[in-house]
Amino acid sequence: MIYAQILAGGKGTRMGHVKMPKQFLTLADKPILIHTVEKFVLESRFAAILIVCPADWLSHTKEIVHRYIHDDRVKVVTGGAERNETLMQGINYLQTHYDLTDDDVVITHDAVRPFITQRIIADNITAALQYPAVDTVVPAIDTIVQGATESVTTIPVRESMYQGQTPQSFNIQALIKAYDKLTTDQKATLSDSCKICLLAGETVHLVRGENFNFKITTPYDLKVATALVETRE
To answer: Positions of the site: Transition state stabilizer (predicted)?
Structure first.
């Protein structure tokens, strides 16, 4: 079976002084989260679409989902304190409520990347059915500079550099085994879900994203997203 998990657990601290997490802010005429979920509802192969959100916002999430989304596959689940804990909370829900097999996969996506396309979703599904882990990326346009404090330590070759996006997709059993292998110290270094599999020695396959599949993180991003929605409409 194929499952989707929309990660909506962030607090949105880089958005500035706003009254709610960024995934609930309005983009055009509805919450950013809803724009994202609508793209996943269009994919008929998903057996369930989980929205994993902060415990304090569980009721609010259920309310807006009930208002805008009419699909029984969509479930609202409580997330964790940080990204990968939220991811694993969703996996725990799938283990509890569905009869998972060794072939089942999950397509995970940031709630605040509302411009995902059906092509990107389909490519992730195809790759996840073949590989244990999949990352969506775009080639780096600018030169990447690695530094420490105020000095450059290295400049990697740009042609081998990519910018990570989501979805990040996994064979569910491979993800569980990889996460269980990690030490407490390794889990503390996780800044990215695919790193779970990398640290466990798994191969991570690449899928091409799109530059417009960006993450709404700052007030500037929200202005750009608003302009993009208005242009498309």
So the answer is: 14, 22
| 82 belongs to an annotated ligand binding site | yes
Res. 228 pLDDT band, cuts 50 70 90: very high
The verdict on whether residue 81 carries a ligand-binding annotation is yes
Is 146 contained in some domain?
Answer: no
The answer to the question of whether 85 is labelled as a binding residue is: yes
Domain count, the chain: 1
Residue type, 61: T
In a domain, 145, yes or no: no
- Within a domain: residue 34? yes
Nearest to 211 by CA among 117, 122, 135: 117
One-character DSSP codes across 5-55: EEE-----GGG-S-SS-GGGSEETTEEHHHHHHHHHHT-TTEEEEEEEE-G
pTM above 0.85, yes or no: yes
Q: Is 189 annotated as a binding residue?
A: no
For 3-15, how does the pLDDT look when each residue is reduced to its tens digit (9 = 90+)? 999 999 876 566 6
What residue numbers bound the domain in which 38 lies?
2-136+164-232
Q: Is residue 11 part of a domain?
A: yes
The reply, when asked if residue 83 is annotated as ligand binding, is: yes
Is 7 annotated as contributing to ligand binding? Answer: yes
Strands 30-31 and 26-27, bridge-based pairing: antiparallel
Q: Are 155 and 164 in contact (CB under 8 A)?
A: no
Is 86 annotated in a binding site? The answer is yes
CATH number assigned to the domain comprising residue 219: 3.90.550.10
CA gap 3, 51 in Å, rounded = 11
Greatest Cα pair distance in the chain: 53
159 is in an annotated binding site: no
